[in-house]
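Q: I'm writing up a methods section and want to include an example of the input and output format. Could you take the sequence below and give the corresponding predicted structure tokens, formatted cleanly so I can copy it straight into the document?
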Amino acid sequence: MKQLLDVIGGKQAILGLGSKVFLVNCSDSKQEASPIRELEIKAVGAEDGTTIQAVSVTESPDGILCAVACSDKSLLIFRALDDCTPIAFKTAKRISSMMFTTVGDDDQCVLVTADLGGDATAYPIHAENISVTGHIL
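A: Here is the clean output for your methods example:
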């Protein structure tokens, strides 16, 4: 099972196709999408033959955050509008689905991931420096 499309507010969409990620603006009036950013996951350290398993996108005070899970158990997190290299992490298991959410009184951004074995892990996202620590739920 793969999760290869996510949309925020009907305005931006992230798509995973093979080994490429596309972030696009969705236009309500023209029924077409204009590209914001394209990312080849091999260019940021993913192993050869790696494919995208899941994608997620959210709005944060620091901009649009994107997450990409790959078949080599890597998890890439990046700001959509920055040209910076995504931060890459290795996960214990291959992620099959994920979503951003907020928790607590301070609306802490969290990336919740799930694998095919049924385990869920929460990664608190510190957007200002894009760092994460995983906590199994």
